[in-house]
Specification:
Blueprint (H helix, E strand, L loop, with lengths): L9 H24 L15 E12 L2 E11 L10 H13 L4 H25 L7 H24 L11 H9 L2 H16 L6 H17 L8 H25 L4 H5 L6 H18 L1 H7 L5 H7 L5 H9 L1 H20 L4 H10 L28 H21 L4 H9 L7 H9 L21 H16 L7 H17 L10 H18 L7 H12 L11
Helix pairs in contact: 1-3, 1-4, 3-6, 4-6, 5-6, 5-7, 5-10, 6-7, 7-8, 8-10, 13-14, 14-15, 14-19, 14-21, 15-17, 15-19, 16-17, 16-18, 19-20, 20-21
């Protein structure tokens, strides 16, 4: 049984969302559920007490004074009932204990709804890879982990809440997927984290803006170090937005007075949180990509090394298939680059996709010597089809046992999709189908391409093989052949789940035509070749009636 990647479905994502929402709801109220963490006057506070930024009305003589205030009482501080700040913090904490079931339930509903909305968006409108269950599990786990880290920062440190490094995940999403996914995740994550402080408005504004800026400023995915600079730039933008927000809320704001607060400065926290997110995203990018179901560029580059044991195995045991794979790699890489897909991933996928042919290489025509008889001449059509289809299953097994990342393994079981082996199915029908087999028996056991990259390799697999039969190798003939291949794949529904648009197919087709024309360009003959051609032309034609001695 071939095990392929699983798509996220509504029932599964509902269960996952409910489990993670329950964990976060518990974390949201954990400080109010532990009796030992309750503050008391005359005793040191076991946790940092934080009152969200909010308006306060105080009586000053015969008038009322209106102001905003942010209260933080560091962990270990002995509460003094004569201190206004301590009394505000104590009063706020008293209203939260014991926690009501309605509040805890409401927090669960909030987290659950945000997870579900994210999943629905990704399944309906996101890139193909984000529709996979493995990817969504990794993404949601990362979101939950960052919220838990934010909760720990609030409870056990005195630094401003603006230090939350939530922009880590938008940076990873920009690296692994695209910026639209990063924007969605950033907004959902910002609301989750801000809920820990009753949706503190300045905090929510900074988190949303900083995460968005980090994704926008991370311009080149091939240069992961840019994450640090993107984080720094996002921090500066977050600081500007924070200053503007405070000026609107309070009517006046002094950045220098804020900075003089030192480690408790929210303005410095805005910048520091961005820098921290960029550094973490860069240092742990390999783990982040694996968590999101991807594979790092460093790993892909290592897999292109022709000394890799699996590639050596293929070059030795199935040399014809290996040359076919290498030719495909050049064609597929150019096609992927033309539409902004991951060209390096496609090249690696081309190298490894046919590794299953090393099991029975002689069943594939490219591995036969000139004039060598194909074993299919002595086999029944269904036996031949089974032998051909086996390379998909065997290749997937070899790659997984060899520790190859799943995004690369995916090329092995998607490059034929669920197509029918037309040649042997037609041959079976020509013989009147003596075993009464159905067309499904001649259908590949893989799955349709789920990404643009795997879909491109499927097209290139057929196009590269067909290009060797084009004589003479003219542009018009290449163009006609490519259009025919693309139409057949579209008609059979093999590209339905790939995410390729009609514009993508047009660009890819033109790029592959150009590449093939350049690959099969003509050369000027050497003098000795011209001499041989002339000698052959001057030799009198042989009399067909002449008898051989």
């Amino acid at each position: 049984m071939l095990r392929t990647r699983v798509r996220a479905t509504a029932p599964v994502t509902l269960v996952v969302s409910a489990l993670l929402a329950a964990v976060l709801a518990l974390a949201w109220s954990i400080d109010t559920l532990v009796p030992a963490w309750a503050p008391a006057f005359g005793k040191p506070t076991p946790i940092t007490l934080r009152v969200p930024y909010a308006p306060f009305i105080r009586e000053s003589g015969h008038t009322l004074a209106y102001s905003h205030q942010r209260v933080v009482v560091p962990r270990g501080t002995v509460l003094d009932d004569e201190n206004d700040t301590h009394r505000i913090a104590f009063a706020y904490e008293s209203t939260r204990r014991p926690p009501s079931q309605m509040r805890i339930g409401a927090s669960f509903v909030l987290f659950f709804a945000l997870f579900v909305l994210t999943s629905v968006y990704l399944r309906r409108f996101g890139p193909s890879r984000t529709r996979l269950l493995r990817t969504q599990l990794g993404l949601f786990s990362a979101m939950a982990a960052l919220v838990l880290i934010a909760k720990g920062l609030l409870l056990f440190t005195i630094v401003p809440e603006h230090w939350m490094p939530l922009a880590v995940l938008p940076l990873w999403c920009s690296l692994a997927f695209e910026r639209r996914v990063a924007f969605l995740v950033n907004v959902m994550l910002a609301f989750m984290a801000a809920s820990l402080l009753l949706f503190d408005l300045p905090l929510l504004t900074v988190l949303i803006t900083r995460g968005l800026a980090a994704g926008v400023l991370f311009l080149n995915r091939k240069q992961p170090r840019q994450m640090i600079w993107a984080g720094f730039g996002a921090g500066l933008i977050g600081a500007v937005i924070y200053a503007a927000t405070m000026s609107i809320l309070e009517g006046t704001y002094s950045p220098m007075a804020d900075i003089r607060m030192g480690v408790q400065s929210p303005l410095l926290g805005c910048v520091g949180g961005g820098v921290l997110a960029g550094v973490i995203a860069h240092l742990f990018r390999h783990g982040g990509e694996r968590l999101l179901g991807g594979v790092s560029r460093d790993t892909l580059i290592e897999l292109t090394d022709l000394e890799q044991p699996l590639l050596q195995k293929m070059a030795k045991e199935a040399p014809g298939s290996w040359e076919h794979a290498r030719a495909m790699a050049n064609l597929a890489e150019a096609a992927a680059a033309s539409i902004g897909a991951d060209a390096l991933l496609v090249r690696v996928g081309a190298y490894y996709h046919d590794l299953g042919k090393t099991i029975q290489p002689k069943y594939f025509v490219e591995n036969l010597a000139h004039g060598e008889k194909t074993p299919h001449e002595d086999l029944e059509p269904d036996v031949s089809a089974d032998a051909i289809m086996a390379h998909v299953v065997q290749g997937t097994k070899i790659l997984r046992e060899g520790g190859i990342p799943e995004p690369v393994v995916e090329f092995a079981y998607t490059h034929h999709g669920t197509q029918t082996i037309e040649y042997f199915w037609h041959k079976c029908r020509e013989r009147n189908n003596p075993k009464g087999l159905k067309e499904e028996f001649f259908r590949y056991p893989g799955m349709k391409p789920q990404t643009k990259e795997t879909a491109i390799l499927m097209l290139v697999d057929s196009i590269e093989a067909a290009s060797r039969t084009i004589q003479p190798p003219e542009r018009a003939k290449f163009d006609e052949m490519i259009q025919r291949v693309v139409f057949v794949k579209l008609k059979s529904g093999q590209l339905d789940e790939s995410g390729l648009t009609l514009e993508d197919l047009r660009i890819v087709s033109l790029r592959m035509t150009d590449t093939l024309v350049n690959m099969f360009h003509s050369r000027i003959k050497y003098p000795w070749q011209e001499k041989q051609d002339k000698a052959g032309a001057d030799k009198p034609p042989k009399d067909p009636k002449e008898k051989l001695n």
